[in-house]
Amino acid sequence: MSNNSRGMSSGLLVAVVIGTAASIYLYLTGILGIVPALAANALIIASTVVLGREKVNKKPIVWENEVVIITGGNRIKYYEGDVSNYKTLEPIVEKIVKDLGTPTVLFNNAGIMVPKSFLEFTPDQIDKLLAINLSGPIYLTRLVAPLMLKNRKGHIISMGSVASFVTFPHGSTYCASKHGLHGFFEGVRHDLRELPGGSKIKISVIYPSVVNTGLFDGLKTSTSLIANSSPDSVARAFIDIVESQEGHEIFLPRTAKITSFLSAFSRSFRDRVYNLLDAQNSMKEFKGRDLYFSKTAK
């Protein structure tokens, strides 16, 4: 029996996790990121969802008919494409549906960070960063949401950032993409409410502080107010959201939520906060400055 037919008959959890070539490079060079952390927690995701259904339905679980557990090696379903190109994403989503069934969870995790003055960006680099960080999640949500609506269930989870609410020096382009992501999914929530079955589709966004991965190596931050996040804490937040089956806004750590209030204050007050955090010097020793563009340059 194919994975697809098994999934359609038993309500298989089909989680689609989107990453970038840069995250794969970091993983292969031994730098732990969010995607590997999610893989390490895949068993938890699978077992908790199915066991929760067993508790509600009071029926024994036949595991081989219920769930595909991603543990590594040849059990991984990997679909290569360009997250910034809608035309390449459409056939990939169609193949996922054919292989596994309608996606139950979409995790928009692809993103790049290239901190430098906007004057140092080439037009092509601006287009690429915005296409991956902002257009990509919009494209995938546009492709997957109708399938979830037809199935009357689904959860779209996206990786935001504290940069969705504040802007730092040499981060104007990156922060613009994260501000846009926040605005887009706020709008999507309202759009879905107006559609039949739209209330069954949950929208969640995770807003972490600086995540301790190689991509942020050398970034100087003040952890006295907002501590850095670990890849595992982000993975655990994802698991908690999936388990809850409700839409959430998750700030990591919890103190990061104060960033969502800063825009309510005057510009002069915000500048004083940035000075207190020494934001102007945070990028001087940053080592990941051109990591993505250098690894993807032709």
TrEMBL record:
The chain crosses the membrane at residues 12-28. Gene3D superfamilies: NAD(P)-binding Rossmann-like Domain (3.40.50.720). It comes from the Eukaryota. One of its GO terms (molecular function) is oxidoreductase activity, acting on the CH-OH group of donors, NAD or NADP as acceptor. Keywords: Membrane, NADP, Oxidoreductase, Transmembrane, Transmembrane helix. InterPro entries: NAD(P)-bd_dom_sf, Sc_DH/Rdtase_CS, SDR_fam. Belongs to the short-chain dehydrogenases/reductases (SDR) family. This is Putative oxidoreductase.
